[in-house]
Amino acid sequence: MMFAVAMTFIDQTIVSIAAPDIVSELGLSTSGMQWVVNAYLLALAAFFALGGRLADLWGPRRVVVAGTLLFVTSSVLCGCVPAGDYALAWLVVFRATQGLGAALLFPAALAVVVAVFPIERRGRALALFFGLTGALTAIGPLLGGWLTSWTWRAIFWVNVPVAIVALILTALAHISDRRRDEPLDVVGALLIAAGMGLGVLGFQQASAWGWDSVATWACIVGGLVLLYVFCRYELRTRHPLINLAVFRDRAFAVDNLVLFFAMMAFVPLFFFASVYAQVSLSASPNQAALYLLYFFAGFALASQWGGRILDKRGARPTMKTGCVVGAVGYALWAGKLTDLSMHDQWPYAALAGAGIGFILAPASTDAVNRALDASYGEVTGITQTVRNYAASIGLAVFGTMLTHTMTDHVVDTLRSRGVPSGTAHSVAGDVTQQITGHADTRTPTGDGPAATAMRDAMSSVRMDFAEANQWVFYGMAVALGIGYLCALRHPGGRGPATEEQAIQE
Question: Which residue windows are transmembrane per the record (predicted)?
Answer without folding.
Answer: 34-51, 63-84, 96-119, 126-148, 154-172, 184-203, 209-231, 252-276, 288-306, 471-488
